[in-house]
């Protein structure tokens, strides 16, 4: 056995372990849609793919995605940012403070600035002074919460702001950002003309697959906020900037090997500062979204841990924009099930997840059987055993969910409210084997020091 062969990962040695391309993702998405439609028909759970659920999922996923995108920019430069929650809180307060006075778009800009200031503080602590990244992030979370509570009582509970509806724990109302609806396809009004709603008509028939597809498309094209559209455009934009421009290459090189980047003339401190400030700006934008789209005002505790869920979505997405968007939609969808679907819809998802787990078990077993014996080293044997154990655990969990589905008709409300958090734990556990964070993420860097 050659030395080169010994270093080959068994997973990569499998003949089918090629990198997935867009056609593969489209095929997977189509299969999931068919399965979701089948589950809806079997359990008569129409909210599973209704346009209202899809619209709510997107609205709930956007702040998670924006916070996770902030974490992605920061960690790609090598700076761990668990202060996303605090930066989001700063964005909610500054966005509401400016929004109720000068309009929602000024509020969005102010929210970005508020979050960016939190990012600047984090960069000063971690990059310039070498403070532990976790300690700095926790401090910013505490500072953001305490500072906004103090400022809310100081500003919103006095004078004109109080007369407009402000108080010690909330701001005056903020005008919402305009929404878009595609006429003819998704209804709405154009001037005085009442537009047809073709997709809504198809959705109300509850046909297999056709109505589900109509509901999903209608949810994406009806009453979509302009800020939601901006957030969706940030997915390809972030990918292009980070993976297709010299600026993005410099940032990612700082996260992989800052000393090698320094030797090639990259100003590592400058790149880290830029990435962490941009990270704070995205988190502030997530906070501004909450006060201009999700709700028309600032309220104490409004972020409700979305910054931490955004961090989990970023890890689930393997530090890439596309995976982050998929993880955010998953968390947003389970949260929407809690808000709109209730116990009946979550009961249908038991069958959906059970079938998925069976598919995961089959895939892990199939991957393990296709390994070439000549490249299975001691490390490979451990991975092989891990694959079989994972397949066995997936089958056990699938069997338990199937029994639960068959023995019940509805999921208790207490478990329904816990569904988003349970989803967070499950997807991170299942995705842990394929994750690879930037090599120098969280490491202290000092210019000119030997590695």
From TrEMBL:
<feature type="transmembrane region" description="Helical">
    <location>
        <begin position="346"/>
        <end position="366"/>
    </location>
</feature>
<keyword id="KW-0812">Transmembrane</keyword>
<feature type="transmembrane region" description="Helical">
    <location>
        <begin position="106"/>
        <end position="131"/>
    </location>
</feature>
<feature type="transmembrane region" description="Helical">
    <location>
        <begin position="138"/>
        <end position="156"/>
    </location>
</feature>
<protein>
    <submittedName>
        <fullName>ABC transporter permease</fullName>
    </submittedName>
</protein>
<keyword id="KW-1133">Transmembrane helix</keyword>
<feature type="transmembrane region" description="Helical">
    <location>
        <begin position="418"/>
        <end position="437"/>
    </location>
</feature>
<keyword id="KW-0472">Membrane</keyword>
<feature type="transmembrane region" description="Helical">
    <location>
        <begin position="22"/>
        <end position="42"/>
    </location>
</feature>
<feature type="transmembrane region" description="Helical">
    <location>
        <begin position="79"/>
        <end position="100"/>
    </location>
</feature>
<feature type="transmembrane region" description="Helical">
    <location>
        <begin position="54"/>
        <end position="72"/>
    </location>
</feature>
<dbReference type="Pfam" id="PF02653">
    <property type="entry name" value="BPD_transp_2"/>
</dbReference>
<keyword id="KW-1003">Cell membrane</keyword>
<feature type="transmembrane region" description="Helical">
    <location>
        <begin position="387"/>
        <end position="406"/>
    </location>
</feature>
<feature type="transmembrane region" description="Helical">
    <location>
        <begin position="224"/>
        <end position="243"/>
    </location>
</feature>
<feature type="transmembrane region" description="Helical">
    <location>
        <begin position="273"/>
        <end position="298"/>
    </location>
</feature>
<dbReference type="GO" id="GO:0022857">
    <property type="term" value="F:transmembrane transporter activity"/>
</dbReference>
<dbReference type="InterPro" id="IPR001851">
    <property type="entry name" value="ABC_transp_permease"/>
</dbReference>
<dbReference type="GO" id="GO:0005886">
    <property type="term" value="C:plasma membrane"/>
</dbReference>
């Amino acid at each position: 056995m050659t030395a080169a062969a010994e270093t080959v990962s068994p997973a990569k040695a499998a003949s089918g372990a090629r990198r997935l391309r867009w056609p593969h993702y489209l095929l997977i998405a189509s299969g999931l849609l068919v399965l979701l439609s089948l589950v809806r028909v079997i359990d008569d759970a129409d909210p599973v793919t209704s346009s209202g659920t899809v619209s709510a999922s997107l609205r709930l996923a956007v702040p998670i995605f924006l916070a996770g995108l902030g974490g992605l920019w920061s960690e790609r430069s090598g700076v761990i940012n668990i202060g996303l929650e605090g930066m989001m809180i700063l964005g909610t307060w500054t966005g509401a403070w400016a929004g109720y006075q000068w309009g929602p778009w000024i509020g969005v800009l102010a929210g970005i600035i508020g979050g960016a200031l939190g990012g600047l503080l984090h960069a000063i602590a971690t990059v310039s002074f070498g403070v532990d990244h976790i300690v700095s992030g926790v401090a910013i979370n505490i500072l953001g919460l305490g500072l906004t509570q103090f400022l809310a009582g100081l500003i919103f509970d006095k004078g004109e702001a109080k007369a407009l509806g402000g108080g010690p724990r909330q701001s005056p109302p903020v005008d919402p950002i305009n929404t878009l609806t595609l006429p003819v396809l998704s209804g709405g009004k154009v001037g005085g003309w009442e537009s047809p709603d073709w997709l809504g008509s198809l959705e109300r028939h509850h046909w297999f697959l056709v109505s589900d597809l109509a509901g999903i498309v209608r949810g994406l094209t009806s009453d979509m906020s302009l800020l939601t559209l901006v957030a969706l455009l940030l997915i390809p934009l972030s990918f292009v900037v980070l993976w297709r421009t010299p600026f993005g290459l410099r940032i990612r090189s700082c996260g992989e090997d800052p000393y090698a980047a320094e030797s090639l003339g990259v100003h590592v401190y400058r790149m880290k500062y830029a990435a962490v400030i941009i990270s704070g700006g995205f988190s502030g934008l997530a906070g501004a979204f909450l006060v201009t789209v999700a709700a028309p005002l600032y309220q104490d505790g409004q972020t409700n841990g979305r910054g931490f869920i955004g961090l989990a979505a970023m890890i689930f997405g393997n530090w890439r924009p596309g995976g982050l968007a998929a993880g955010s939609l998953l968390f947003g969808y389970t949260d929407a099930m809690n808000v709109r679907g209730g116990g009946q819809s979550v009961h249908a998802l038991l069958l959906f997840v059970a079938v998925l787990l069976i598919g995961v078990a089959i895939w892990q077993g199939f991957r393990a059987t296709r390994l070439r014996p000549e490249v299975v080293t001691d490390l490979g044997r451990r991975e092989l055993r891990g694959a079989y154990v994972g397949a066995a655990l997936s089958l056990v969990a699938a069997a338990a969910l199937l029994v639960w589905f068959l023995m019940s008709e509805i999921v208790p409300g207490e478990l329904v409210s816990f569904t988003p958090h349970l989803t967070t734990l499950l997807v991170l556990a299942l995705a842990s084997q394929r994750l690879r964070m930037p090599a120098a993420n969280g490491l202290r860097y000092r210019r000119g020091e030997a590695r």
